[in-house]
Specification:
Elements lengths: L2 E6 L3 H13 L5 E7 L11 H5 L14 H6 L3 E4 L1 E7 L4 E6 L5 E5 L2 E4 L3 E3 L12 E3 L3 H12 L4 E5 L3 H12 L3 E5 L12 H13 L3 E3 L4 E7 L2 E7 L2 E4 L2 E4 L3 E3 L2 H5 L23 E3 L6 E2 L6 E2 L4 H15 L13 E5 L2 E7 L2 H6 L4 E9 L10 E9 L5 E8 L7 H9 L4 H5 L15 H11 L2
Parallel strand pairs: 1-2, 1-7, 2-3, 7-18, 9-16, 10-11, 10-16, 11-12
Antiparallel strand pairs: 4-5, 5-6, 8-17, 13-14, 14-15, 19-20, 21-22, 22-25, 23-24, 24-25
The structure holds flavin-adenine dinucleotide.
Length: 451
Amino acid sequence: MARRLVIIGGDAAGMSAAAQARRLTAAGELEIVAFERGSRTSYAACGLPYLVGGLVHTPELLIARTPEQHRANGIDVRMHHEVTAIDARALTVTVRNLDTGREAVEHYDELLIGTGASGIVPPWPGIDAEGVLQLRTLDDAAAVERRLGAGARRAVVVGAGYIGLEVAEGLLGRGLEVTVVERLDAPMGAVLDADMAAHVAEAMQSAGIDLRLGTAVTGFTALDGRVTAVETAAGPIAADLMVIGLGVRPNVDLARAAGIGVGEAGGIIVDDHLRTGTPHVWAAGDCVESYHRITGRSVVVALGTHANKQGRAAGTNIAGGDAAFAGVLGTAITKFQNLEIGRTGLTEGEAGAAGFDAIGVTTEASSRAHYYPGAQPMRIKTVAERRTGRLLGAQIVGGEGAGKRIDVLATALWNNMTVEAVGGMDLSYAPPFSPVWDPVLLAAGKTASKI
Ligand SMILES: Cc1cc2nc3c(=O)[nH]c(=O)nc-3n(C[C@H](O)[C@H](O)[C@H](O)COP(=O)(O)OP(=O)(O)OC[C@H]3O[C@@H](n4cnc5c(N)ncnc54)[C@H](O)[C@@H]3O)c2cc1C
């Protein structure tokens, strides 16, 4: 008889696991059932800001695989089905059909939890008013679109993390007046050092965004149920569309209630094979904690890149193979208009907080040979351990060609290189792509000279 794999959550982690397990096993060997409470599978949330911004023209373009495509691939996907409980002793889950309200108990031999994360929404007064939205799903994007269709002219984005930044760019592109309210003193202040974040602030302000830093939101004012202003410690800001982007919290209630271990960072605890401590239960994606390769700590880094890799590794292991997820560096990239922003590893602030005696060195460079048309300025900040010269992290802010250079530094970081060794790497050169000394080489060399 076929073993039965049950998956909770039909997006990146869950369906990567399902697809990989299907690839590696015959249907007669493994039955795969995925329960998804929403109405879509495998969609690219990462593309939502560009859908809102009008760069991506239809929501369908963001869907990698529909439920029908998964079913044709031998995965029994049940939409509008919410798992409400796990009984890890009986090896069952309780599932509610959200269309009929009926509940059923389903057996599993292996269970994968891929429940993702939810946006942080503080219990502010007025939070439920019409026009106060998040941008996490295609339905959220449709709600933003409806507000725009209804004539919204002024938007406030609460939170200047990477999603807030991308949403602000999108709404600005749609012709709205945009204010961004951020409690910290810098945009992307949780992932960039202040000196690097200052360039992001500059770009936002020169694009016409009213950037309110160091400003705490206290609630919303509504008229006839519809939002009219966001209240802040520094006074109200009138707007007819609010988008909240305050980061996320892993969805772990089901796991916790079933006695499955949840860590201090707030995610489900898994080993490098995505096994939880509970027999036959696996977890992957935004709902889990990952091993940070520089600090050795458990962290929640909710990114699609990890969800896909973890789901795939879990699928391999569930199918009887052997695949490890080797941890995270916190590498991330985004952009605001023409400004590309990348980061990996630890910022100078994070390195200090983690107990490293670290040095941070900023280098200004050009994306191309100075005489070649289109050369763009960029700044690279490299963080290294003072005693050993070991690279601990890097941040890049600059024009076209800057952002993806972070991947070279992430590769060096992944392999525990010193800044001196990075400065001597054999990187490509031709005038349209870089100066003779690539900005990465320059930055690493300059840092090495200060060790
Ligand atoms: C606007 C935006 C932009 C982003 N941009 C990037 C980017 O540029 N780069 C990047 O790497 N990442 C980005 N991300 C993050 C990325 O989308 C997530 O990391 C990824 O989707 C996580 O996949 P997941 O499967 O773990 O969780 P999710 O995508 O959240 O999927 C979890 C699924 O589980 C379902 N579910 C939850 N509980 C239950 C239950 N009890 N029963 C049934 N179903 C359940 C949910 O409905 C959901 O469909 C972005 C996210 C957003 C919102």
